[in-house]
Amino acid sequence: MKVMLDTNVLFSGIIYGGKVAPIVVEYVSNHYDLYLPEHAIKELNRVTANKQPQKANEINGNLAKLKYTLLETPLGMPKNYLDMRDSDDIPILWTAVVNKMDILITGDKDFTDIVIKKPKIMIMSTFAEKYMKGVQVYGTSNSNSNMER
C-alpha cells in the first residue's frame, strides 16, 4: 500500500516528537511503501527553522532513518485545486493524486472537507486504528491485524 505523509505529520513525527506521530511515521516506514513529497520536505525545513530552529540540523539525519521514496511535485498543478484554502496544501494533494497514493496521512484540518476517491485522506489516529492493529499507540494495543505492503 502506498502511503504519503503531509508536512505536519513529518514535523510531529521526526522533529517535535509527540506521542503518536513518531510511532505512526516509523510504522509506515517499516510496514508500508512510504512516499514523501519534495514539497513537504522543503516545507518541513521552513517550519522547523521557524518553530524549532535548534533542531533544524536534525532533519536530514532523521529522514535518513526512514525508508521512503521521494516524489517530485508533478508538473501541471492547478492553481486552485479543489478550492483548497491554503495554497501550500495544493502541491501535497496534487502529488498524492498524480502518483496514485492509496492513503495521505495529515493533521491538517483543511483536508477534512476534501472529497476524492483516492487517496484516502486520514488523520494519524484514524490510520492507527485501521492499519496499525496490534501496535501500542495510545497506551493500549490495537487488537486486529490489517497489515499490507
Structure description:
The structure is a single chain. The chain has 149 residues and is α/β, with parallel strands linked by helices. The chain has one domain: 5'-nuclease (Rossmann fold), CATH 3.40.50. The longest helix is centred in the N-terminal third of the chain and has 14 residues. Helix 1 crosses helix 3. A five-stranded parallel sheet has the order 3-2-1-4-5. It is built from six helices and five strands; from the N terminus they run E-H-H-E-H-H-E-H-E-E-H. The relative contact order is 0.20. The protein is globular and about 35 Å long.
Q: What is the secondary structure topology, with strand pairs?
A:
Elements: E1 2-5, H1 7-16, H2 21-31, E2 33-37, H3 38-51, H4 59-64, E3 69-71, H5 89-98, E4 103-105, E5 120-122, H6 124-131
Rounded average pLDDT:
84
Structural class: alpha/beta
Percent of residues in helical segments? Answer: 25-40%
Number of domains: 1
Strand content: 5-15%
User: C-alpha Rg, in Å?
Assistant: 15 Å
How can the largest sheet be summarized?
5 strands, parallel
The largest beta-sheet arranges its strands as 3-2-1-4-5
- The number of helical runs is 6
CATH class: Alpha Beta
CATH topology label: Rossmann fold
**Helix and strand run:** EHHEHHEHEEH
- Quick one: overall form? globular
Distance between the termini: 5 Å
Which second-level CATH architecture applies? 3-Layer(aba) Sandwich
